[in-house]
Amino acid sequence: MGFETHFECLLSNSLALEHLELTQCTKITCLKIPFALQQLSRLSVFECSSLKVIESKAPNLSSFFHRGFRVNFSVVETLQMKKLDMGCAIHDARANLPSIMPNLETLVIESVNEVVDAPMLPTKFIYLKHLTIRMITGSTISRPYDYFSLVSFINASPSLETLILNVTLRMVNESIFTDSQLRHIPEHHHGHLKSVKITGFSSAKSLVELTCYILNNAVSLECLTLDTIYGPRCDQDKYRRCFPMIDGVLTEAPRGLAAIRTYIEDKVPSTVNLTVLEPCSRCHVRRRVQTSSQSDNAVSI
């Protein structure tokens, strides 16, 4: 009898199980959760490299968290699902989740090398209150992502209260300073959106357009945070140093700050607290000095 069979037997006899967490388990390729686990409400899977398929028949599963290699995740009963945190293409999440998991309240998407913009669709996330989108792109990606297409998520979420967009990629988008003609779409007032944070903010035109749209339509907005770098900072309790930045991010940061001053600051209502974060003067200043010095040397040669 193999490990997976033993594990399935264990699950089938754990009728009072409420939270199942698997961490770095390399012996499971297919995780099947039986209907008998009616008390199971939370499922967390971390870095299980061999896992390819997760099938859940647990009728009251309301929270699913996954980090690691992409898996095929299927749920028989989805009406109870309230919190979903997993790697997923933004395009697929917008197209499929409103109908598959209509009662979602918290959605965290981690997208790697996204190549298709978010579609404009009539379907709604009626109960969604908290949305986090993490975009990770490697240095080989050359196609710019249209951040303005994320308006589709905002317009589809009438109950949305918090929005976090983490952009972890190199600058390949058209800069607002290259083309300053902003796109506009019909107004769609949002009465619940109170907090918006964008990390990895740059001078990308579509990112500026998204921010301006939020300022023009989020009538209940209380705070807007624009951070020109991404990742943890040293002023947070558990971090001694900021997340290291590649040269391209530090080079782009001043342009991002200039875009905020030029196109965003004058659109911020007096009722909104705007916080703009520059690269850390302790962790990133030396790297910036080195980069500037190298650039100066290149020019003088």
TrEMBL record:
Q: Sorted alphabetically, which InterPro entries does this protein's record hold?
A: At1g61320/At1g61330-like, LRR_At1g61320_AtMIF1, LRR_dom_sf
* Domain At1g61320/AtMIF1 LRR: start-end pairs: 6-281
Q: Which residues form the signal peptide?
A: none
Q: What is this protein called?
A: At1g61320/AtMIF1 LRR domain-containing protein
